[in-house]
Amino acid sequence: MIQIINLIGMAFNAYSLMLIAYILMSWVPAAQNSAIGRMLEKVCEPYLGVFRKFIPPIGMIDISPIVAIFLLNYIHRGLIIVIGKIYFLF
Fold first, then answer.
1. Among 11, 34, 44, 52, which residue's Cβ finds the most Cβ atoms within 10 Å?
2. Partners of 61 in the beta sheet?
């Protein structure tokens, strides 16, 4: 059971780090055109695109990635709670 929770935690942490790397790469246009930048765009943009539809930028600052990372953290915590409750039911 602990291995499953650790694996889920590592997956969520890895995706959070990918989101942060993608956000930081947006400041450097040359980095976005690299192979890593294109790969991160394919992985991160579908998730971030959902938030960009509902949260408009404030001036030149896009706060949707911050909201996306917070929601990802809450989903992770909620999933751990649900898995723990299901595990202790049986």
1. 44
2. 58
How far, in Å, CA of 9 to CA of 33, rounded?
30
pTM of the model: 0.87
Q: What contacts 1, CB < 8 A, 6 or more positions away?
A: 83, 87
What would you report as the CA-atom Rg of the chain, rounded to the nearest whole angstrom?
Answer: 16
From the number of C-beta atoms within 10 Å of its C-beta (0-12, 13-18, 19+), residue 44 rates as buried
Neighbour count for residue 59 (Cβ, 10 Å): 5
Nearest-angstrom CA–CA distance, 75 and 34: 30
Q: What is the three-class DSSP state of 1?
A: coil
Alpha helices in 1-90 (DSSP H): 2-25, 29-32, 35-54, 64-89
Mean pLDDT, residues 14-34: 91
